[in-house]
Here is the input.
Amino acid sequence: MHETGGTETRKIVDCDVHPLIKSVDALSPYLSSRWRERFVPRSIGQSSSNGFVFARARDRYPHPNTTYRLDALPPNGGPAGSDPEFVLSDLIEPHGITTALLLPQEHYGVVRFSSAEAAAVFERANNEYLIDQWLAVDNRFALALTVSEHDPVAAAQSIRDLGRREGVVGVQLLINKTMLGSRLFDPIYAAAQDMGLAIVSHQNGSEGCYSFAQGPAGGAPRFYGERHSVLPQVGAANVVDMIMSGVFERFPELRVVMVEWGFSWLGALMSRADHLWMKNRSAAPHLKHAPSEYVVKHFKFATQPLDEASGSKEFEAMFGIPELNKMLVFSSDYPHYDTDAPDVILGKIPEPMKDAVYWQNALDAFGSKIFRN
Amino acid sequence: MLRDFCRFAGVTRFETLFPRMPEGWARHFDRYEWTGAVDLASNHIRVSDRFSHPPLEAFEPERLTVPSIVIPYQGLIVNGWADPVAAAVFVDALNAHALDQWAGDNARIALVINPHDPNGSAETLKAHRGDSRVGAITIPLTTAMLGQGIWDPVYRVVEEANWPVIIHFSGVEGAYLGAPPLAGAPHTNALSRHILMPHLAESNLASLVFEGTFYRFPRLQVVLAGFGFKWLPSLLRRMDQEWRNFRSDMPWVKDKPSAMVMRNVWVTTYPAGEATRPDTWEGEFSDELSRRLVFSSNAPFDSDDEQAVEAALGGKWLDRIASNSLELSGIVAAGR
Here is the structure.
């Protein structure tokens, strides 16, 4: 195992790094023969440049280019993000990253599975693979176990089974048809809270694609760029739903990290929620505090993709959202096409917020286990 | 003086409209469940059906103290109707009533179009060209996004007549089957729905921009009313970035999306109470963008007046909004 990197003065936690399996065969040791037969030779295929299971309907919203950086392809083959050693040399060491939170991407395709059993088996195999093949390689890797809504009780059990493994710091909960405020998720939230694991939400690609998936407001966007412009709405809607449904009254220690949903809409959302709640408190009987107080206490929001402001005044205002310094965490989204280069983005963070965004807010969300050394 | 770009008026009894309906249709609508639902339809925000609202007062245009665009809000709810034919009859009767009864020196009517039939609506609108009582049109939102070509016949008439298009939610979005969804999945909490309504404005604005609507209709002016306005800078940055990243995927979009918004789109102040502490957000509004904000009262529902706007946003913004309102009024007037 390598030694932890990072600078002496400032740790860096990258809350969005996507690992992929090298080939679907890699999961074979984690599957029974019955499931190996189902997954390995048939439905998924044996080679891929960017993963084996997809959530986004690629004949509906095809990406205009490639979803990954060409320079992130490992020299020894396999999809971008499939070689932990190359991720270390390509991302982590050059940028002095102390911890990279792994948000596995192949799980995203699980939202399309119709079989709850298949979803659980695939998720479990992939989680165990990453624990063995990535967390064991270097102590700068941390993992969010991934679970879906197919069978929340089974998901909760999986969290309890694997949640104490070294390097496991969170639970990536896939958004599918049910809003995250639903009591359906209570077994998952209970397990996460008991185990001290933060819930992590990352867009999975299914949004706006299927009748069983969530989508943006209004109707169907016409093409990829239009859809991508309004995708943050789904994250925002689930933030509101969790608060209004009383999740944080039921699970007061729960922390949620929203990744790749943006953050610059927070100021408008929080002030609107507070304003309308003040006018009509009885419409949300679960709430004991203003909605924005729940946001600040329970949520973190990742930086990528960082908005490009037109000038310093707008940029400063973007970071002037009340109490943003308590909510913002850094993310690169490596190895995707729109990776935010850590040196560029971290350099842009206003100096008074740097420690908070670099690592302190991640520490608040994930606890001290986010640093494995 | 402010000008109000979103003031509502409604009938207190649906029966009032029966004489304006084609033969036989009054009987169709004369059923106690529907006539008795006038209160339901008057809760246009539809925060919750469990809240009661006092009966509406009859709208009296002579009592308006500022020039206002008056939206017959009960027409908006046809976006949740299952019967598109009945919707046409209803909005035609409501529009006729509004023009006769609610237009005045300070009140110009926003004609509600039947969103289930854009072609038919365009033909109906043509009959109103040159009618000085008409100040705008309003399109109840459907799942056909506003940038789609099916709206072109409407925009063609509207642009020629120099009427702005005012967009306001009806309140059934995200609730009634067939009405536009809100972001995510169905929300059971009514307050959540209300909080998330601005997403409808975002999505339709993205549609208008990315579908190239403003190239086809360069003089079209769209007013997104009642959604607040603080959400706009974040969306513009996002759209500009998508355009920059994927310009080759949308070769028909030749300008930065935000530039189109500066020319063709307006947002309104209500609810100003969500925009207190301008020091926390005004830096996101360039001088150019701040010129796109006009006043809307939302009266006679929960509403803002000039004092409320000044209390929330301050005198500097109030002056700017008054100036912007004059500019939008001038753009509209210039075409007549």
About this structure: Chain B touches chain A through 69 residues (CB under 8 Å). DSSP finds 14 helices and eight strands in chain B. Chain B has a mean pLDDT of 93. Residues 24 and 208 of chain B are 39 Å apart (CA to CA).
